């Protein structure tokens, strides 16, 4: 668990993509990625090393972004600092 100002550094995560968005899975919990440009080069199921922080809301999604009306349980929004 982490607070909104603390970054998770160099965590091994799995990229999860579905019709509701893109997530990073850490310890069985999914975190919704706000800044999609950081993960655009990775595919669903890729294992990557990430540094990210939890944020209260996401203002970075483009208007008109289409998502399906399915619930994807997650731990909230994150902003990715770096991936490798």
Features:
84 residues; mainly beta; five-stranded mixed β-barrel; 0% helix
Concise synopsis of the structure shown:
By secondary structure, this protein is mostly beta strands. The protein is built from no helices and five strands.
Overview of the molecule:
- This protein is mainly β.
- The chain is built from no helices and 5 strands.
- It has strands at residues 7-18, 21-26, 29-33, 47-55, 77-83.
- It has a 5-stranded mixed barrel.
- β1 and β2 form a beta hairpin.
- The protein is globular.
Backbone structural class: mainly beta
Strand content: over 45%
Radius of gyration from CA coordinates = 12 Å
Shape: globular
SSE sequence, one letter per element? EEEEE
Count all strands and give the number: 5
Question: How far is it from the N-terminal to the C-terminal residue, by CA?
Answer: 22 Å
Quick one: biggest sheet? 5 strands, mixed, barrel
Order of neighbouring strands in the sheet with most strands: 1-2-3-5-4
- Uncertain segments are none
Oligomer classification = single chain
Helix content: under 10%
**Tally of individual helices:** 0
**Residue-averaged pLDDT, rounded?**
87
